[in-house]
Amino acid sequence: MASRKKIFICLFIFVFCAASGTSGADDLNRTMIFLSKGQVIYVPVYSHIYIGNRERPFLLAVTLSIRNTDLNNPVVVKKATYYNSQGKLLEEYINTPVTLEKMSATRFVVHESDKAGGSGASFLLEWESEKPVSPPIIETVMIGAQTQQGISFTSRGQVIKEK
Q1: Cβ neighbours, 10 Å, residue 39
Q2: Residue 128: what are its φ and ψ, rounded to 5°?
Q3: Phi, psi of 134 (to 5 degrees)
Q4: pLDDT confidence of 2, banded at 50, 70, 90?
Q5: pTM (global) more than 0.70
Q6: Domain range summary for the chain, segments of one domain joined by +
Q7: Which fold does the domain 35-162 belong to in CATH?
Q8: Is the separation of the CB atoms in 156 and 138 below 8 Å?
Q9: Exposure of 46 by Cβ count < 10 A (0-12 exposed, 13-18 middle, 19+ buried)?
Q10: Are 122 and 40 in contact (CB under 8 A)?
Q11: Which class for 117: exposed (0-12), middle (13-18), buried (19 or more C-beta within 10 A)?
């Protein structure tokens, strides 16, 4: 009976360690390269943020950056759609698909004076490739300056659909 208890305890410890990731599986997953043939990506945008107790708007310029990280293949950006905080379509930034060659980038700018997006604006971006590729990095950079105060920060896109 005592040996069954020891076996049960050893089995429990093994299962617990495996489930908690101490078996090395996490390290393996971190080193694996994820390839894709296309994605739809949600990218948070802030055309302004609020400062002070009176929640005064601080206007920001926004740069949406799309970077092809694949070393060998192009990707095609099919859509870059800009929405305001209420989810209303404000602008389609792409009329015809844009091909990004290997390791190249493109960008779209929302001017600082354009405050229509609000603090909860977003881009919806769609890209695809003929072959499985390293997915592009899609992020926004927001920057603004008023008097002697300046602010800048980034926001990274989130995959919401895999093609």
Answers
A1: 20
A2: -155, 165
A3: -70, 125
A4: low
A5: yes
A6: 35-162
A7: Hypothetical Protein Tm1070; Chain: A (2.60.290)
A8: yes
A9: buried
A10: no
A11: buried
